[in-house]
Specification:
This protein is of the alpha/beta class. It is 45% helix and 21% strand. It has helices spanning 16-30, 45-50, 54-66, 79-84, 94-102, 183-200, 216-239, 248-257, 268-282, 309-316, 326-343, 346-364, 370-375, 386-400; strands at residues 9-13, 38-42, 68-71, 105-110, 127-131, 141-145, 149-156, 162-170, 174-178, 203-208, 243-247, 262-266, 288-293, 299-303, 367-368, 382-383. The chain starts with 8 loop residues before the first strand and ends with a helix. It binds NADP nicotinamide-adenine-dinucleotide phosphate (NAP) and magnesium ion (MG).
Length: 401
């Protein structure tokens, strides 16, 4: 069989159990069918430490060059990891570094199968959460107010003009917080969301609390509305998709009653909270993909879960593990399909579709990893280890090629 040719994408290897799965996926499911063409960056913790984390910055810059990247889960070091890996420093989160360089928005989408039913009965299609990963309470200044006194909000401009307003005249102890966001970041967020909706051909919902926050949240609402009217309305209408703004409390109620099949854009805190709710309600973190989209159209795909440390330690002891490779496989198919789209490479896009279908068909046959077996209500299932699961997917894929 002739292998499918492709243009280059950026490949970022990672850590622990997902690093093991990464190699298995490449060997079993990709390399036999595709002329894999990647620029390889090892973001495994030892290599980040050896290069003083320069490798992460180089990988992010390479994504800007090739426009598409795929990333394995990586360890974000804490004190215990510094000890375990004898690190020179407690290196920053690679995802944070890459996000800062690409200035992107993170979209998380569940992978849905017939065998695993969402907790919300009406949900038939995936709900994608787009989280604005910048500012608000994640960059706030706050303190305990020790006792009676006046709290003020002051802004001093470059030219000396200033605003001053009383927040509260405290008659007792309490708490105080100041937060901010930037128009430029909100604009990037809006464009990433509109572009993603166009790519996915799905409606875009956006929600804030602008009735209560008449300046702060109102600004988010106005920036979205303005960019939509000027840059995106026509394209949305051509595709028959909708941009829809509503209050966050109304959005929550509508999401629960919906069938799914849309993108829900959220401010930073709302996105943090709602993405955990949505992923749990759909089933499992191991069935959740994640893509970072920059406003100028660069894409980085990954699984939403971590390096599955607990399974890795078992693997090191020579025990079999039943780690679920689906989200990592879908990170690859997402990247290959995007590469195909950008280059008009139809065979590559078809391959991505076939590989995803093979994964879902194997699960529909009742063959699954332990995490899914726990969630599945069917009686006729066979729980397998990662090796056997990949072999079953390979067999399905071969039938369809
Ligand atoms: P985790 O790797 O997501 O795993 C937490 C637990 O969830 C696992 O122990 C396992 O449960 C289950 N699980 C997650 N993915 C699974 C899969 N594919 N198949 C089967 N079960 C799965 O989170 P963590 O243990 O909190 O973090 C481990 C490391 O990952 C940390 O060093 C963290 O920094 C890193 N991390 C990286 C990313 C990223 O690169 N995007 C994201 C999050 C965390 P059972 O043990 O019950 O089977
Ligand atoms: Mg969270």
């Amino acid at each position: 069989m002739n292998k499918i040719p492709m243009n280059k994408i950026v490949e970022m290897d990672g850590d622990e159990m997902t690093r093991i799965l990464w190699k298995m996926i490449k060997d079993e499911l990709l390399a036999p069918f595709v002329e894999l063409n990647t620029e390889y960056y090892d973001l495994g913790l030892p290599e980040r430490d050896r290069t003083d984390d320069r490798i992460t910055v180089e990988a992010a810059n390479a994504i800007k060059k090739y426009r598409v990247g795929v990333k394995c889960a990586t360890i974000t070091p804490n004190a215990q990891r510094v000890e375990e890996y004898k690190l020179k420093e407690m290196w920053k989160s690679p995802n944070g570094t890459i996000r800062a360089i690409l200035d992107g928005t993170v979209f998380r989408t569940p992978i849905i199968t017939e065998s695993i039913k969402p907790y919300v009965k009406t949900w038939k299609k995936p709900i994608t959460i787009a989280r604005h990963a910048y500012g608000d309470i994640y960059k706030c200044t706050e303190f305990r107010v020790p006792g009676p006194g006046k709290a003020e909000l002051v802004f001093t401009g470059e030219n000396g003009e200033s605003f001053r307003e009383t927040v509260y005249d405290f008659e007792c102890a309490g708490v105080l917080q100041g937060q901010y966001n930037k128009d430029s970041s909100i604009e990037s967020f809006a464009r990433s969301c509109f572009n993603y909706a166009i790519d996915a051909r799905e409606d875009l919902w956006f929600s804030t609390k602008d009735t209560i926050s008449k300046q702060y949240d109102q600004t988010f609402k106005l920036i979205f509305a303005d960019i939509y009217e000027k840059e995106y309305r026509q394209k949305f209408e051509e595709l028959g998709i909708e941009y829809f703004y509503t209050l966050i409390d109304d959005a929550v109620a509508r999401v629960i009653r919906s069938e799914g099949g849309f993108i829900w854009a959220c401010k930073n805190y709302d996105g943090d909270v709602m993405s955990d709710m949505v992923s749990t309600a759909f089933g499992s973190l191991a069935m959740m993909t994640s893509v970072l989209v920059s406003p100028d159209g660069n894409y980085e795909y990954e699984a939403a879960h971590g390096t599955i440390t607990r399974h890795y330690y078992k693997h090191l002891k020579g025990e079999q593990t039943s780690s679920n490779p689906i989200a990592t496989i879908f990170a690859w198919t997402g990247a290959l399909r995007k590469r195909g789209e950008l280059d008009g490479n139809a065979p590559l896009m078809e391959f991505a579709d076939k590989l995803e279908k093979a994964c879902l068909d194997v699960i529909e046959d009742g063959v699954m990893t332990g995490d899914l077996a726990l969630l599945c209500e069917r009686g006729d299932i066979r729980k397998v280890n990662s090796n056997d699961f990949l072999a079953a997917i390979r067999a399905k894929l071969e039938q369809s090629m």
